[in-house]
Amino acid sequence: RSGTPVLSARGLSAGYGDAGPVVRDLDLELWPGEVVTLLGPNGAGKTTTLLALSGALQPRSGVVRWGGQITTAPLHQRARAGLALVPEDKSVIMNLTVRENLRIGRADVGLALETFPELESHLDRRAGLLSGGQQQMVALARALARRPAALLADELSLGLAPRLAERLLGVVRAAADGGLAVLLVEQHVRSALTVADRVIVLRHGQIAWSGSAERAREAPDVLLGAYLPLA
Ligand code: ATP
């Protein structure tokens, strides 16, 4: 490949408090136009990886680069530079309206509605009154309608009916086809593989397997590694 990854990490280790590291010595790259899916059982360190890459959690060691430049900037600064994080709790503010949620994220409301037209009739409703799926649409629309260069998203399909999950993942795929670099944390291996270009399987905080989505689909043991609970 030519050029520079949007986001990359070398030797990344991260954890919490006095406990040992949760992820150790990770190398990864995220290029424009690709969807990379991070798979792995509960507790493997997927969320921690996402947080350390985003600046929400400062790494213990290793280097994160944004557009080729080493960064230690906190999340809000990286957000201004074009990084979008959709965290596990989706961070939709329940007692603000949908419109207010979009504005707080500095999202282009028109662009958000182009992506999810069904949000239009809910713009002035409090987000807490929407269904879980609609709230997830707000979170994704808010992230994408700032036209980020990279999207890091934690369990977008969690708790959604399969059709809605497909819809959200399809929106992500389309954004990647437009040049966005995407890292998706997913528990649902099957739906993740339908949109991914590449797959990374984490176990015990380290990369247990990585390769193309095509190779992952042909390697049942890889998928097993992504599912099997940690011993
Ligand atoms: P899950 O699907 O369960 O979220 P995951 O692969 O995303 O799993 P992480 O959330 O990164 O895994 O968690 C990995 C380990 O780090 C777990 O043992 C968890 O208990 C621990 N951990 C996660 N968040 C914190 C925190 N805020 N403080 C302390 N320990 C944490």
UniProtKB/TrEMBL annotation:
InterPro entries: AAA+_ATPase, ABC_transporter-like_ATP-bd, ABC_transporter-like_CS, BCAA_Transport_ATP-bd_LivF, P-loop_NTPase
SMART domains hit by this protein: AAA (SM00382)
Keywords carried by this UniProt record: Amino-acid transport, ATP-binding, Nucleotide-binding, Transport
Residues covered by the ABC transporter domain: 7-229
Molecular function GO terms recorded: ATP binding; ATP hydrolysis activity; branched-chain amino acid transmembrane transporter activity
GO biological process, one term: L-amino acid transport
Family according to the record: Belongs to the ABC transporter superfamily.
Protein name from the UniProt record: ABC-type branched-chain amino acid transport system, ATPase component
Organism listed in the record: Parafrankia irregularis
Species classification: Bacteria, Bacillati, Actinomycetota, Actinomycetes, Frankiales
